[in-house]
Structures are given as structure tokens and as C-alpha cells.
Hints:
With 299 residues, chain A is an all-alpha fold. Chain A contains eleven helices and no strands. The two termini of chain A are 47 Å apart. Chain B has 236 residues and is mainly alpha-helical. Chain B has helices at 3-13, 23-37, 42-77, 80-84, 91-120, 123-150, 154-172, 181-192, 204-227. The longest helix of chain B is centred in the N-terminal third of the chain and has 36 residues, at 42-77. Chain B is globular. The termini of chain B are far apart. The A-B interface holds A 49-50, 52-53, 56, 94, 97-98, 101-102, 200, 202-205, 207-209, 211-212, 215-216, 218-220, 222-223, 226-229 and B 17, 20, 23-24, 27, 31, 34-35, 38-40, 44-45, 48-49, 52-53, 57, 61, 64-65, 68, 72-73, 76, 153-156, 159-160, 163-164, 167-168, 236.
Amino acid sequence: MSTETTTPAPAGVIHDIGYQRYAGARLGRRYVAGSLYVHGLRTAFGFGRSAKAKIFPWLIVAIVAVVAAGLAAVRSQIGEVVLTYAQFADAMSWLVIFFVAVVAPELVSRDLRSGVLPLYFSRPLHRADYVLAKLAALITAVWLLLGGPQLLMFAGAAFTTDKGMGGVWDEVLDLLPGLAYAAIWAVVFASIGLLVASLTGKRAFAAGGVVAVFLMTTPIVGVLMVMPSTTVNRLAGLASPSSLVQGVGVWLFEEWLVTDTPTGIGVGRFGPVYGAAALLLIVACVGLLLARYRKVASA
Amino acid sequence: MSTISWLTARGLFGRRRFLLLLPLPLLVVGLAVLARWAGVSPTHWGGPVLVGLGLAVVLPVVALIVGTGVLGSEIDDGTIVHILTKPLPRWQIVLPKLAVAIGVTAVTVAIPLYVAGVLAHSVRLGLALAAASAVGAIAYSAFFLALSLVTRRPVLLGLVYVLIWEGLLGNYVSGTKVLSIQQYVVTLADRLAPTSLLNGSVSVPVSIAMTVIIAVGFTVLAIDRLRSFSMAGETS
Amino acid sequence: MTTVDLSGVSRWYGNVVAVNDISMALGPGVTGLLGPNGAGKTTLLHMMAGFLAPSRGTVTLDGAPTWRNPDVYRRLGLVSEREAVHTFLTAYEFVLASARLHRLPDAEAAARRAIELVEMTSAQDRRIGTYSKGMRQRTRVAAALVHDPQVLLLDEPFNGMDPRQRLHMMELLHRLGDAGRTILFSSHILEEVEQVSGTVQVIVAGRLAASGDFRTIRRLMTNRPHVFAVHSSDDRRLAVALMAEASVTGVEIDRTGLTVRAGDYGSFTRALPKVALASGIRVRRLLPSDESLESVFSYLVEA
């Protein structure tokens, strides 16, 4: 196809085809971090992704939902509280581990693998913002996983209560510690899971690593529990994230968590130690995560 | 040593992630030593360490990492093409890789279990645990290797099997025990060295037969899947 | 002499057709597989290399199917597009392993020869992980050539190479082609194909659009009349008006409308609306035939 030229000599011209510089407001760091958080939360449940990416998260969601519905049904029919709200979180710990193992690699390992971090960090986004946005997304996702079914149980209990509004209020008072306990689960598990996942770009290995950390440490607790020293037994729970969280729970929410004979771990007077250890663990994990991302992708 | 096994072994040991395998066996030995040193009766710690940690976690997790690693990681990064563009019958690719996976898993798991078994009870229990975990390594490795050819996400599916099928359902729904490699291993170890520490819930003939069926069946499946290996397009 | 034959080969993924009824025969010499991105080049190469089953049709190497038949690799080498290598090996170890897997009688000598062929001898004892993109590519070519295959398939071999490496690779392919090997490489850049081979297979949207000598195809495309199917409110009057245009070389009229042959694509498409406007005729439909090949070629020539 020929073009009409008016000048015979070879001449060049840059045509104005309407490109403009962006002159509007720039939304900045907070917006970027916010977007990253929302995107992370959507990724956790496979929204905006292929159907395959939804299988594992929703499988877990389905299981916890079915369990919660079952518990609510049992309670409304027989009137027996099989698990309190707080105990529900304990009972689901395996699934939480698996959920973290599925989601944490999706959040961070993918970005490492595909090498998009330099793209992120060339925006007005600090490395810490990236880490914290991802962490917040994972925490929220785990909390929703545990809290959502609790709300389901609450709805079941509230609608079938025969004590009127007072009964509903009692349920609310039971539910709130349950949700708070779920939040502790979420924060501890998300921090550890994200840290492990951030070490490798291979999602498969990240998932294996997350599961390994949680599973490997459980038997240590089992052995320490049978040691011939009450102090060691009481402190045994510190050795594993799951029992650590349970220890904190027993310390803070004993009334809601321990219904009959103490089947779980007795923390004795060491409750504050568990609290401090959990706090220390979270701070350490976040600190290591931040340190990890200070180095990563700068090469 | 065939070139395939050499390449596979180099791929496994030549990367840092192999070091991830080390803490698991060390943990088994460490806990056994600790319990022994503290003078705790083996009836208390034998179950959690030997079965709860050793046979239920270390064995399947090591087998999963190694079994999906010998072929799965090559499929993942595309280097499998170099091996497939050779005029080799596909069983000559699958079998050496499976052998490496079984060997590495068996050594990594059997040694610490032997030590823990000796500390818990007797040399006989140690040997029984080592032998049973080696047999388990064969079944698990064949299963996870085939899994890495059947799906793009073998590690996750493998974890579902180990955690949910064997770990969760195996404890509550007794029917699933008949299809649980972990139960065969426990049964075999218990048969070889009867102690109060282990109790198998599946009969010995069923365990042996199922182990053989799983090992052979999944190996044949893997060979056939590799024969029709298709280059995939984009990953999801 | 080894030939690769494709007859009626189609491949679809779900309801997306990636390769549509392609038949071709590849003989000795260098052939370029040309087409824009997403035309189905890689799918076709994978089927030739036995890494994908054709949904329909057959792909054979000297009469033997390539799918589920590892024996073809005795005579076939593949350099895939994905830049995947065992980074923990050195180039020599990597090529040597290939030679061993081919069960070559003197694997060491074959490996050294192949590395020399791609001029990687000086770097052969460094780990592949330390190489540049072009060096990795050459290492992969060496591994694919180690058993001296009759057929070599390369998927986008020039991607990511600097001009000097590109020239070197072109020379290598030239030499292999002149030695009677059957070489097929894919590319979406015409200039590359032009320099390495005269023979091209052009793929457009999964279909074989042209094949043969590149210059001949180009001449055919510029010299042949362009055919358009036109349908209007008054076909007969439009035909008369069009015959007066210099760009029109012939008009045929039948029940379905007009078939217009134009000597020059550009001036006809500019003339038609003017003619229609002047004579008050409404053009209902204008269909250029073979448009896809046309646009592909202009795309390839201008790229």
C-alpha cells in the first residue's frame, strides 16, 4: 500500500496520533498496597483465576462449611453443643494448615518464580508494603475460613434459641472469643506460612515446606508431654505452632475453650509465656520476611 | 549406573532443596535420643515418634518430595524434553528414576527409624521398621511418581492424600485404611517384630498384596503416561 | 534421505483449532516455518517431534509415525523453544549425557564433535547456569546434534540471540542443510528465513497458506490479480462503472453478485467507494479473497 508524499526528498515526520502524558492525580503508595491486598485476598480463594485454581481453596471451604452446618444441625436438633466456637478453630487446624500450604505459595512463590518483583518495586511501593499487604491478605483469608463457619454456627444457634434476645446475646458473647481466637490462629499460621513460602519460587516445594513445618513440630510436643517433668510438660506446647496457639487460647479463653476435663494441653501458670512466645514468633516471622524481601530480586 | 539415574541423582543432590530432607530424619533420631535420655518409658513416646512422626509423616513426606522431584521437577522446568528425545523405551526412563527415588527415600527414612526402633525396644524392632519403611518407600515412590505424570500439581495432590486421606480419614473412617499405604507399613513392621508399640489394623496378606498392586500398577501407569507425554501449552 | 510427511494433520484443543488440515513433505535442505505468533507453528513442530498426538491425520518420519514411537529419535533432533537446560551440569556433561542416552559407541568423541560444531569448546567445562542465552541455545543445539540426526527441528532458534550469534547459527543451519540434512526451523521474522533458506512453509491461523520457494511466492502474490466479491444494490450498473477504472482488470457477474479482479489492491479499494458514490449505488458487501495470506505477508515483510 503506497502513501501519498508531497515532498520528493526523503523526509521524516512524527505524526501526532494523540498520545498524551498522564497528567492526572497519582494514587500513590497506599493505593498500590491496598490493591495488592485486595488482589491477594481474591487470589487466596481463586477469584479472577482459572477454575483449576479454585479447586483446592474451595474444597477446604466446603469441608469447613459442611462441618459447621453439621454442628449447627446437631445443636438445633439435640441441643447438645459438640464444639464451641473456639473449639471449632482447634478442630479445623489440619485444614488450616493445608489451606495455608495452598494459598501462601500462590501469594508469594508465583511472584518469585515469574520474576515480577522488580516490576512491583519500581512503583511507589516499598518492599515492606508488599510483604505486609500479602501477609494481611493471607491473615484475612485464614480468618474468613475459620470465622465464616462460626457465623454459620451462630446463625443456626441464634435462630433456634428459645431464650429470646437474651439467648442471642449469650451466643454473641460466645461467638466473639471464638472469632478472636480464630484471629490468633490466622496471624500465627499466616506469618509462618508466608515466611516458608517466600523462600522458594516453586509452589510445590513451598506447599511441602509449609506442611512440613507444621507436621514436623507436632510430634516434638508429643514427646515433650511425656517427659518426667511437669514444667517441661506444661511448656511442651511451645514447640509447635498449633499447640502454641492452643496454649495462648487456653490462657486467654479458657472459659470457652475448655469445656470438660482438660483434654488439650495444660498450660498451668505459664499462660503469659505462651502469649509472649506467640508474639515473639509473629514478630520474628515478620522480621525475617522483611529481611528476606530486602534482599530478594535486587540481584 | 545408567545415565538416567546419574542425571536424576545430580538433579536431586545438586540443588539446595535436597537439604530440606535432612531435618526430618534428624528429628526422629533426636526425639528418640531425648526421650531415652530423660528415661521416659517407650510405651509413652514409641507411638508418637515411631508411627506418628516416622511412618505417618517422615516416610510419606520424604517420598513425596523425592518421588515428585525425580520426574515432576523436570516436567515443570521443561528439561524433560532432553530425556524424551532419545530413542529409549519409556520404561528405561521410568524405572531408573523410580529406583533413585526409592533408594533415596529408603535410605533417608530407614536409617533414623532403625535407630529410633533400637532405642525404643530392640534391634529386631529397628530392623523391622527399616524393612517396612523401605517397602513403604517402594509403594509411595511409585504412587507419587505416577502422580507427577497425571497432574500438573502432584505435590498438592500428594499432600491431600497424605494429610486428608491417610491422616484425617484414616483415623476416623476405618474403611479408608484398606487403601492406605501407611497402614500396610505399620502392619508389616508389626508382623516382623511384634511389640505393643505398633498395631496394624489391616491383615498381613492384604498389606503385601496391596503394596505389590500399588507399586506395579502405578509404575505401569507412569510408563504409559510418559509414552503419551504431551507438551502442554501455557500453565494456568 | 529422510523425509517428514504430514498428511491432513489437524490438532484442536477443546473447540480451538490450532492446526487445520495441513499436508506437507519436508525433504533435505533448510525449510523455514513462517507465520505470525499464534499461527500454530509450535503445535505443528511438537506433532512432528512426537510430543503431541494429531487430533486427525498422520505425521510420519520415513513412514513411521512419530507419536508414541521413541525410535524416531534415532534420526530426529529437536531444539524446543523453552530455554530449559540442566543448569547444574557443564555443557560437556550435558552433551555427553545426550550422547550416552543415544547409546552412541564413542560418546565422548561425539560430544566433543557436537560442541565443536557449535563453537562452544572453550566454555564447555563451565556450568550451564553461568551461560548467556545464546550460549545455552548453542549448547541445546549441540545436544540435539550429537547423534548426527537426519532431521533437525528447531523452534524459534534465533530468539534472544545477538546479531553475531544469529549469523553463526544461520551458517550452521546452512552447512547442515547443504550436507543433506532435513532442517526445519520456525520463525516469525521473514528476514531470518530469507537469509537461511529459500524454501518456506507459511502458516496462517493454523492453515498452510503457501509453500515453496519464498521469492516465487512473493512474486505470485504481487503479480496475481486481487479478487474481490462485491454485492451491491445494482450489480450490473456497478460492473459497467468499474470497468472504466484503470485498476480493474476484469469483472464477472452472476446470481450471487460481482467478482472483481483488480491489478492493484490499494488503488482499487480507494476507487470503489468513489465509483459507488458517483453512480449512487449502495455497496452491500465487499469481501477480499485470500486476505489473510496477504496481510500475513505484509506483516512478515514489514516486520
